[in-house]
């Protein structure tokens, strides 16, 4: 994905990692389908769900919202903007063009409790399915994009973080071992493919 020019989003000082992980998963899904790069606004999702409060959440919560309403491009809701004027019919008409259409998650669990084993994560990644993943040990949510062989027989996951391009390698990093097993996760198999 780095080669495709997918840039990490930046949540700045807000506790919105849980919406950034899912929005970056939609951007990654679009990139893998050779769709045009459209910068999407994770702030739009978090602001509406949390009524503009700076609060944490779960990737499953934002994934549910993305399936129902979608996410607008930064042209309609600038990233990092918390202005209520962004919440208008034109914004949500644009958001409907960027909806989740197919997910991989445990439907028997609530949005805040949808665990995924490491094998299930790797299956998603091997089938080019980005995974939004919550990690309790990190109190953080990130987008997992690729399997990585650390050494023969030892694997980890490449992730896009929501702390901007100044984090690690232009916003990308690798997790391995027990730390790479999410407490909750959603795989993004497909999304509405439009500009």
What is the secondary structure topology, with strand pairs?
Elements (H helix, E strand, L loop, with lengths): L16 H16 L9 H8 L9 H10 L20 H7 L4 E5 L13 H9 L4 E5 L4 E12 L2 E7 L11 E5 L7 E8 L4
Antiparallel strand pairs: 1-6, 2-3, 2-6, 3-4, 4-5
Helix pairs in contact: 1-2, 1-3
Could you characterize what this model shows?
The structure is a single chain. The chain is α+β, with helices and mostly antiparallel strands and 195 residues long. It has 5 helices and 6 strands. The protein has helices at 17-32, 42-49, 59-68, 89-95, 118-126, and strands at 100-104, 131-135, 140-151, 154-160, 172-176, 184-191. Strands 1-6-2-3-4-5 form a 6-stranded antiparallel beta sheet. A hairpin with a 4-residue loop joins strand 2 and strand 3 (140-151). Helix 1 crosses helix 2 (42-49) and helix 1 packs across helix 3 (59-68). The longest helix is centred in the N-terminal third of the chain and has 16 residues, at 17-32. The two termini are 19 Å apart. The mean pLDDT is 88.
């Amino acid at each position: 994905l780095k080669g495709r020019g997918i840039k990490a989003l930046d949540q700045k000082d807000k506790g919105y990692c849980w919406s950034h992980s899912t929005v970056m998963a939609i951007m990654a899904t679009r990139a893998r389908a050779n769709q045009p790069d459209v910068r999407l606004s994770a702030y739009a999702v978090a602001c509406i769900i949390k009524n503009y409060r700076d609060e944490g959440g779960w990737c499953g919560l934002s994934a549910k919202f993305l399936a129902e309403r979608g996410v607008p491009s930064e042209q309609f809701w600038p990233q990092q903007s918390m202005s209520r004027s962004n919440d208008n019919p034109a914004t949500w008409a644009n958001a409907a063009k960027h909806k989740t259409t197919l997910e991989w998650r445990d439907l028997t669990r609530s949005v805040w409790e949808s665990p995924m084993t490491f094998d299930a994560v790797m299956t998603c990644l091997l089938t080019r399915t980005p995974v939004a993943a919550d990690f309790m040990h990190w109190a953080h949510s990130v987008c997992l994009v690729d399997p990585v062989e650390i050494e023969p027989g030892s694997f980890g996951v490449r992730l896009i973080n929501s702390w901007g391009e100044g984090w690690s390698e232009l916003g990308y990093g690798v997790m391995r071992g027990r730390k790479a097993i999410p407490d909750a996760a959603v795989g993004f198999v497909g999304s509405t493919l439009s500009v």
